[in-house]
Amino acid sequence: MTLQWTAVALFLYVEIGILVIFCIPFISARRWQRIFQLSIWNSVARFWNKMFLTMIIILIILFLDAVREVRKYSGSQHSKDAKLHPNMFDHLHMKLFRSQRNLYISGFSLFLWLVMRRVITLINQLATVSGTTAALQTQAESANQAAKKYIEDNELLKQTLMEGKGDKATAEGMELLRKEVEKLKIELKSSQDDLNKSQSEAEAMKKQTDGLAKEYDRLLKEHQELQNLQDSGDKKED
Question: pTM (2 decimals)?
Answer without folding.
Answer: 0.53
